[in-house]
């Protein structure tokens, strides 16, 4: 009899924990009570539209998935619209562009997004990352982590969610660990790179580039998913423009060979360190596409013209730049059957 009471007690305790957990997620993150696995959308709301598009392998559309950062966002340029227009003209097909890119995101975010979308068939996937990874180098070497958990709280939370595939059925193991993680994050806040602000004392460490290895690991993980899905991955080298006379003062005075002067290079680190990291990232991308069948290189850094006609800052594109950028991609993608 006592054993049965213990079992009943434990059952109701776990039920209470689960209900409390789901209420917490509903209130704090707007997660549906009966679908705690949808916590993923608190990280990546851009996935909603892609999943709602009704993509099917046998439909009449040529579906292109974009994975990247702000350069591929319409708020920062005209790449998605220009790509759709040029692909339509070159390939003579009905084109749909599915934009999973988001401002500030890295290749690790794109890996999680692509993995979440692995049940959806795409005709082509365009991967474009490089500069946001650069910020992860601005910390003492002993703090750097390839899963970017040293970067800022975002990645610690994301990595925790990734460790709980049971979220479809049980949420309380995740929320219990979440509470502990948030407490730890607050305690160790000084040991992380903060969003929107780099520690001036850590900028010197940006010369020790480690992000290229994390980038390679994330590209490899994406390629493995694409291989299973039999999807073609197009990977762009990261195009950037750094005038030889660059200084932050000249940037603020809009005296450089840029269009709108939108984001100063110092957002990502010291200019010389940013240049070095981008060079390493592009090296990795070129090597990776050479060594991995099923991936195609689009060498945008080698083919994008420099200057204010094309660049608003180190990486964001003018309307003319967006058109030129999209044309380079469309030429490659239009060869697919």
Summarize the structure.
By secondary structure, the protein is of the alpha/beta class. It has helices at 2-29, 40-43, 47-51, 79-91, 107-116, 131-134, 153-162, 172-187, 211-229, 248-252, 271-291, 300-303, 319-333, and strands spanning 61-68, 94-99, 124-128, 233-236, 295-298.
CATH architecture: 3-Layer(aba) Sandwich
From the N-terminal CA to the C-terminal CA, the straight-line distance is: 69 Å
Helix and strand sequence: HHHEHEHEHHHHEHHEHH
- The low-confidence runs, each spanning 5 or more residues with pLDDT under 50, are none
Mean pLDDT: 94
Arrangement of strands in the largest sheet: 2-1-3-4-5
Shape: globular
CATH class: Alpha Beta
CATH homologous superfamily identity: SGNH hydrolase
CATH topology: Rossmann fold
Could you say how many structural domains there are in total? 1
Largest sheet: 5 strands, parallel
Count of beta strands: 5
The helicity comes to 40-55%
Number of helices: 13
Based on CA atoms alone, the radius of gyration comes out at: 22 Å
Helix/strand class: alpha/beta
Strand content: 5-15%
